[in-house]
Amino acid sequence: MLFDVQHFIDMLPDIWKAFGETLLMIGISLSISLIVGLPLGIILFVTDKGLFWENRFVKGILGFIVNMIRSIPFIILLVALFPLTKLLVGDTIGPIAASVSLSVAGIPFFARLVETSLREIDKGVIEAAIAVGATPWMIVKDVLLPEAKSSVVQGITLTIISLVAYSAMAGIVGGGGIGDLAIRFGYYRYDNTIMIATVVILIIIVQLIQQTGDLIAKTIDKR
């Protein structure tokens, strides 16, 4: 049988546990990605040529680091960060440990999305703020972020969806969550029921995240 309903019901406790671990991983890594990625994205933008904090050295160094991390496939990044993960959380297995690699992957991803969102702002708005004597901090707080908020929300949505995909990959090396359940039961034990169930759950999660993000972005977009 391709899908055994009774087996699915019997596995619900494990599925709920895996779902909770996935939410934990995404929650931790998303929080860190937003806290670090937002200011990083702003710095990448305002240090560019022709802007009020133009700095080719800072722009070049940060841009290189961001591009370098983004160019590494997540599964390789996950393994490469085992020493750092061990140092920070004392283990390399489980959702907390996986959150370290997820955060490292999420920060540059979100930072680039923030930078792209800020580039969509009309330069005339920034120049007008400078002309009336606004400080750099005031420009960031009162011009850049309000103008780009809808696009930034869409960036957050894309970041969450990417983290969901990455968290599933983390299951390959014992990261826990839905991906770990799919590997241990669906793949190693040839359990079609669990494989189908985990795929459907991930699809539902992504759809809900995308629709919620689109709704919020549309609601706050006053342009």
Automatic annotation (TrEMBL):
Gene3D superfamilies: MetI-like. The keyword Cell inner membrane does not apply. The chain crosses the membrane at residues 23-45, 57-81, 93-111, 152-178, 190-209. Keywords: Cell membrane, Membrane, Transmembrane, Transmembrane helix, Transport. The keyword Lipid biosynthesis does not apply. Its main location: membrane. It is found in: Cell membrane. It is a multi-pass membrane protein. Residues 19-213 form the ABC transmembrane type-1 domain. Signal peptide: none annotated. Belongs to the binding-protein-dependent transport system permease family. This is Methionine ABC transporter permease. It comes from Bacillus kandeliae.
